[in-house]
Sequence to fold (448 residues):
Amino acid sequence: MTVRFDARRLPKQPGPAAWNALLPPQPSASMLQEDVTADFAVIGAGFAGLSAARRLAQIAPGARIVVLEAGRVAEGPAGRNSGFMIDLPHDLSSSDYAGKGVDSDSIQTDLNRRAIRFAKEAAVEIGLGRESFDPCGKVNAAATEAGHRHNLAYAAHLGRIGEDHSLFDAKDMRALTGTDYYRSGLFTPGTVMLQPAAYIRGLAGTLGEAVSLYENSAVRSIAQTGRDWLLNCANGSVTAARVILATNGHAESFGFFAGRLLHVFTYASMTEPINPSTASQLGGAPTWAVTPADPMGSTIRRISTGKGDRIVVRSRFTCNPSMQVGDRVIEAAGRLHDRGFKARFPMLERTRMQYRWAGHLCLSRNGVPAFGEVADGIYAACCQNGLGTAKGTLSGMAAAELATDHRSRTVEALLQHAPPSRLPPAPLTWIGANAVMRWKEWKAGREC
Fold:
């Protein structure tokens, strides 16, 4: 009997990929328009897929590698995130980001740092400057007494695992951000701040001649043919002995991990360029990035571009098992962003939002990745639990190593996780998850 996995849906990206819109236009896409043969096929050209392809090229020299991307590079979730490549535990389901304990958090930190080293090597090769790959650290910003207590609790946890950190007071936060909004902050030095579209486009350009990248080439089915797999696209196919599935939540679209992946969207808005005279009224550092002390709060970045400074606001989470959201949901999140922006930056009252968008996250109920060999010769590097930059890079590296029988410490660590646990029936998951997230958002108050 032939084993076949058909895609029940294809990715649909809600709103513009603003980070990519800031960059020069990309060259025309190279689409798959013939039948080709490869040693390895990678589905997905985000952090996981491109890291897998790069790692395959490193450890399997001479292998023929094909990467298939449903859309354009940097137009999907990889170009829509907030650009924090975080080394420390960052559990979005917790109250203060601490994970499951000292030992597990120490292991996860070590793994995240391996991913960051891998990304740094690529950034050096690409020639990315600090505007696109900046190892500057980050701050957990607290706007409320409750947020301040979250920071103190997380600082105590970091002390237990021996991690460097510094507490900022309100004066320090004003000097950094130019606003009186924040009560305190918790600085940790290991985060790298990305211009995610610039990084992911650059990473695609480092793959070398052994890797063929096809965009606008969505895989519609994966079928076993003898000892190989046949990946069918609209206008061509790839036959490969081994396949890496780097599609994050869309693994479920092919039938993998059914009923075990939680599909969540988060939302962001980016301002138009800030008038230079208005920017001088704001003050603060020319670039900075803060995550909220309460995970349900607002992530804020100030970025510098060749055409002026901008501010990015990211907040709100919704559970969407359909893996799609409409314009009205983005507009509603935008109103939340506007309120938070106005409260933080009254001196920028004439500055308007230019872009609004949503990005698809994939989480598991028990906080583990969807990783490993899911069929004979198919390897999953999915479910990054909201940390696609670091954990996506890590899982892509590890999937490449697993697919080449290269049993590294990274592979062994990821294989030790239990599989994603089963979710309640879909209607209960959708109702329950959204109700909990709206309650947590309300409880976060001024952190949003």
